[in-house]
Structure prediction request, 736 residues.
Amino acid sequence: MSWILDAGRVEDIARGAALLGTGGGGDPYIGALLARQALAEHGPVTAVTLEEVPDDAVVLTVAMMGAPTVMVEKLPSLKEVMAPVRAVGEYLGRPVTHVACAEVGGVNSTIPIAAAAALGLPLIDADGMGRAFPELQMVLPTLYGVTASPLALADEKGNVSVLNTVDNTWTERIARVACVEMGCSVIISGFPMDGATARAALVPDSLSHCGNIGSAILAAREEKRDPVGAIVELVRGRELFGGKVVDVQRGTTAGFARGRARIEAGSGAEASALELNFQNEHLVARTDTKVLVTAPDLIMVVDHDSGEPITTEALRYGQRVRVLAAPSDPRWHQPEALAMVGPRYFGYEMPSHRWDGSTDPEPATVAS
Amino acid sequence: MSWILDAGRVEDIARGAALLGTGGGGDPYIGALLARQALAEHGPVTAVTLEEVPDDAVVLTVAMMGAPTVMVEKLPSLKEVMAPVRAVGEYLGRPVTHVACAEVGGVNSTIPIAAAAALGLPLIDADGMGRAFPELQMVLPTLYGVTASPLALADEKGNVSVLNTVDNTWTERIARVACVEMGCSVIISGFPMDGATARAALVPDSLSHCGNIGSAILAAREEKRDPVGAIVELVRGRELFGGKVVDVQRGTTAGFARGRARIEAGSGAEASALELNFQNEHLVARTDTKVLVTAPDLIMVVDHDSGEPITTEALRYGQRVRVLAAPSDPRWHQPEALAMVGPRYFGYEMPSHRWDGSTDPEPATVAS
Prediction:
């Protein structure tokens, strides 16, 4: 059933998306600002379920691309958010009928709300990952053969580039260097899909899910319950670790915010320290002796008491945090998906460790 | 009057263009190979003068972009040459009617021949510079307010990117990083102009001029006359220096072939050594004590005896060469043109030195 997405729901969605964004997706409040502005100027957005999208729909994803460390200082305008959707529509020669989120993640769950409001289009209650990942080809539609192209990039200056590439990895490569040159943060739109393809390839109901998580965190806080308990229940995950951030190393390189954070537990804890490795998103959580969880499953950092999600660029020395893990969409555990988003892709020589401590089988290798 | 451009004329044009390309534009023989292949497969090209182009024509320039050091190892295909012209035509929603050269320079005078042949379009006997320059905004049409956008890039893999930017410098910036990522050598097409604008903005008859220079070099060689004398007469320039290449420093950085070459004269010469600084093209010619000539005027290196033009990537220790200078199109000496292609733009803190030893007036500066 379609529902009305108004300003009151934006903050819940942004908060829930900041959690499922596993550290990436940028500051949720910045994205919420823009969405609220768009809703105030253009009225509320109709959110439709995947089942309601007609087969002949023209669906595009909309997202911010770049380093979250830059996004926090470079807020896009509504013009910048509309430009790439329009450019792809013109390229296709067909009117775009629906907007969808490429990922859930602070800014990237609210930018599409702004785009839908400003363009007067319905927003699909779904996304391409069920979490956030750092590279643009890392969406479930890629596994379904959907091409990222034509994909448009737009910056705040008015520059637009439309890519038509031989595969989605090339879209990422060319878009990434253009993004860096255009100021390390751009709005992209692409992955044109008809309704039937969107139904098969996207993660259903993820905007609602984000909204529910966001409101559950607030409700628990108001009712003096532990927000982390409410989160763990909704994401069907577990609490991995709790402690104080004692070190954060972070650099913005090649268009990404890359780094690591170290969290030390108080006395009596099972493990004394946890290390998180991230590239926009948290990719690996490990103790000094053992890998606990890796991408594609979700590694989430929240404030110890308030349960407020903390993005990778907001991690600071001295923060008291809790680290949670949860399962990703099961399709991310297929071998071809793990080749795209598993720890080895990101340079970590280890199998995919699931949220519950089990590991995914490794692809068979030929003995040399 | 229009004329038929067939395979017999390609080599003359390539040789003359290698000279006027002032070291840039890539290996003329590579471009000639592709043009000859296109003419063999699709028949001869009609070259039309600027006067013959109708006012409502849709003119696009076509060029190879990248480092000549890479071009020599990565020959484009006819498919790659046609792709960006088609992409811009589709973007404009109007059929392209004429192809023109962006610059004269080895490959970039023959790639448009290949494009015109393969696309079945007339080629305008004109170009955008009357020489070669390293960055794409450096064409006379920029001075006439022609936008480079929409400009398309295509690589040999099949990737295409269409840029629509706020100014021509942004086209250069985004295209350059995309070019580097796509393999440091791509085919570009852009600068859409109607016939009236092309007539005002382009350098007329430059393909014919290149062909005439090329055939004059060959004729002088066959008749045992000095080819350099024939060149100097046709380019209305002078011989600056003669000697042996004793040092070449060259690197491919940020998508350009940058470097310097040192040439030492035999005993009795007026100056003992000449240094050339280049970024794809020769930009500065100076002795140890004096600047002789800078961009935008032409600095050309040819083989000492045969008069064969030597591109910057072909400069080698031990070559006996002669260095020539000639005037550029006079429009390059306007103040706004010098800001775009004068020595200061390229990082050389000196006024523009003309081919004849005079200097251009410097823009007035406010005393601090």
Summary: Chain A touches chain B through 21 residues (CB under 8 Å).
